[in-house]
Amino acid sequence: MLLPFEIGPGPRAPAGQLTFSQARVSSRNAFKSLTLSLQIQAACSLDANVPIRRLGVEKANLTKIMFSRIGIIGDVHAQHHHLELALQHLATQDVDIVLCTGDIVDGEGDVDTCVNLLKSADVQTVRGNHDRWVLQDKARHVRNAHFKSDLSDDVIDYLSALPVQLHLPTTAGQLLLCHGVGHQDLRKVWPGTERMAAERSAELDDLIAQNHLRLMVNGHMHYRTLIHFDTLTLLNAGTVKGDHRPGFSIMDLRDDLVHGYELFADSADPVRHVKTLSLASNDHHQIFKDTSHFDDRWEPVTLYA
Q: Does the domain spanning 6-44+54-278+289-302 belong to CATH 3.90.870.10?
């Protein structure tokens, strides 16, 4: 569905520390009696370190919009075949909205086709660091790099207009969509394992302390995982890039579940459901207060077979 957006801060969560499940119940009860406008905080400066600026887009009062079933596509990297497979499947799954974590460029495939697919499906997409780099003619040494001089005007306009982050109201509370963390598109979040040291984020710790968010969807790391905090669940959307176990996800807040899918473009069965996980924390998940409590002993909670 095509959604005209109103720019502004997302709805604030109730004061006090709520668990994910408590927030979900509270939001569902509120949904029965409230009319809510969809509000999105967006930033599209090419400098990832500058403050967010407001965008001059048309406002619309959308009644009773709270998303509960959300399609999630990770970094694209010009993989138009995989992107098309993911969107075709999501079109059959009764999702309320489809989100994408950006990095549209720099990969094997056709950027124009990717942009047309994202626009045609009304996918709400944020800007990745590769999108910023190509517009700035930076880091063009990366593998399968695109160059601004080779991009069509439509693609340049699309990439230039992408916001850095979006706030979306869901039946579990506010969701933040971004590429890294907020408007820091190179920031990684990783609790740490034997093979990879922890990646902490003061920006995410500040967001957790503000207690406005219940969900966060990001990309950049190309690895579909869940990280559980006391009051927030983070889903890394992974990628549809062919050499990184390409796939996508569906977040179903009606059942507190996230479903993972993998893509096999050359197969007779190109889209396969591989795993379902609980979004709510449980005894099998390590739960952190914030990233300062990462301990390098995490057992990754992944959406892979």
A: no
